[in-house]
Amino acid sequence: MGSNMAECHPVGFQWVVEAKERGARIFHIDPRFTRTSALADRHVPLRAGADIAFLGGLINYILTNERDFREYVTAYTNASHIIAEGIELPEDLDGVFSGFDPETNTYDDTSWQYAGVGVDVVAAAGARSRRLPAHMEEGGQAFEGGSIPNIEEIEKDETLQHPRCVWQLLKRHYARYTPEFVAETCGVSEELFVQVAETLCANSGRDRTSAFVYSVGWTQHTVGVQYIRCASIVQLLLGNMGRPGGGILALRGHASIQGSTDIPTLFDLLPGYLPMPAADRHPDLDTYRRATTARKGFWSNGPAYLVSLLKAWWGDAAQPENDFCFDYLPRLTGDHSAYQTALDMLDGKVSGYFLFGENPAVGSANSRLHRLAMAHLDWLVVRDLTMIESATFWKDGPEIETGELRPEDINTEVFFLPAGAHVEKDGTFTNTQRLLQWHTKALEPKQDCRSELGFMYHLGRRIREKLAGSGDPKDAPLLDLTWDYPVAGPFEEPEADAVLREINGWDAGGNPLSGYTQLTDDGSTACGCWIYCGCYAEGVNQTARRKPGREQTWVAPSGPGHGRTTGGFSTTAPRRTPTASRGRSASGTSGGMPTSAAGLARTSRTSCPGSPRTTGRRTTRSASRRSAAVIRSSCRPTARAGSGRRRDWPMGRCPATTSRTSRRCAPRCTRPTRRTRPGSGSPTSTTPPTPLRRSSTGTTRIRS
After folding, report:
1. Each residue of 355-410: pLDDT tens digit?
2. Phi and psi at residue 17, to the nearest 5°
3. Could you give the CA distance from residue 284 to residue 309 in angstroms, rounded to a whole number?
4. For the chain, which end, N or C, has fewer CB atoms within 10 Å of the first or last residue's CB respectively?
5. Does the pTM of the predicted model rise above 0.85?
6. Helix or strand run (H / E) with residue 307
């Protein structure tokens, strides 16, 4: 459901096709008939946005016909837990649950508490809008049932007959989702719906499992989270969670989008889904430990994950007497999401912004707000493969066309720095199920394009050089970082392999760890991400295994990838590897691209609007200089005016950039012109077009 897997995830879909050949039944439940539908046993068309009704029908079918895996449900879910008196369902309160405040449109979830324990323990569905007790902090551990201190005191009825047990409340809530209701709401015939429900139930239980597969067809709905919650209920009732062949598979749309959440790009998480400390709740490491450690399960060893992470980031500076540099971590003071940050830009609270692989001018919700927000910045750095809309919003955005904004009124200085593509750098891809595969650089990046790893490493190196010798406490977190990767190649690119070794982790003797169970909280282990520990087991890059499938069994247990644990590389986390395993050290080298090779040329404003050298008010660097594009956004005088001086910067800008509709630099775009048929009067030779070069008036073609 919510996925066209055959077309959008064809490599993964090969296993679905193989499973079908081995006897599995595939249902494609989607409004459209696609290639996935053509390869499925049955296409089930439903109205767009009606997924909750369909899933609700499955839940009702399972409960009404008692097709649940009862032993699993009573042992591994909260179905037998009894909710305290006072709980009321939507059918009792005209469409809302108990605790709803119509004036604030929020819920007070105290009426959803379990019977037998205090009001600080709420059912898993409870909204966490109020101040959380110590055992229910944000992060993965909040969902561990064992984290409830007095869980043994919760009243239960393992016969599932008590009217207020979760199983009975669920049955009463979903009773409305009858096959007739599903047919009317979803546009699916009752017979076809029952066929899907019966097949799913028959293929689940003690001996068999079934899986749901979804993608952006679910997540991009405003109620996408509720789609996934409903599917979770179905799979829990059928015993399909945490068992081979079961689960709910989220197909990630990009090569390593799973890796970007494991080693996170999210503001409220540390690597491995450790919660980011909050300013008002985690004043020290001990408080953080007590608040985020579960009694059992993965998160019972949470302190070891965090301490090992701190040792990986700050090395010898992280000691027990200073809480392993816990105070160096940033603290959450509220909502720091991209949308809130855009609002802060409008209020003048944010003056500078980096964009890495994001295009909020057209790709974020309420993109108009983001364009207006970026117009309030002092500076904006954009790193991408091409000149995206967020880099040119000041001159060609919709607000410019309508007159709401004028280029001459926008003071944002935009720096566009070209990024290297995935084939131009080493690294790993983390797939949907956290299997990891190493990819090797195919070629060096063209001109002055650079990888994110190289950019962040050299940016951090130069900042540290500027702060060297500082006694200011606020500079200590930067100066104490283990920022010492070996570099190689003509552009002194940090070795991604060394980053992966750091993420895997090692013990006090510098020996690579083989799994997260070896991590300790006494400072004797370092690990950049606990869920990836083992990806460099035995000192071997397990993610780079390339034993051909024909030499293995059909399940291919020996690669590529690392099936036991996973790995990935981070461009933001500092790394440190024992000298014996690091190869060439960064010390003794200048670091970064030599200044003479490329630098950031900041050309000054040479005239007011209308000058042949300007576009609107922005000046661009001379086309003869191979440096980073600087798009100036102000007519105000500057001390740099007329200097045109170069800056020591490892990232430059290809002087032959194409328009923003192209994704390549000019030297890569010289494909042959189209051949003409004989007799057409035109030559049939394949003459490459002349390269494109960006000038002050836009993209022009330069004659050879």
Report:
1. 998 999 999 989 999 999 999 999 999 999 999 999 999 999 999 999 999 999 99
2. -65, -40
3. 16
4. C
5. no
6. helix 302-314
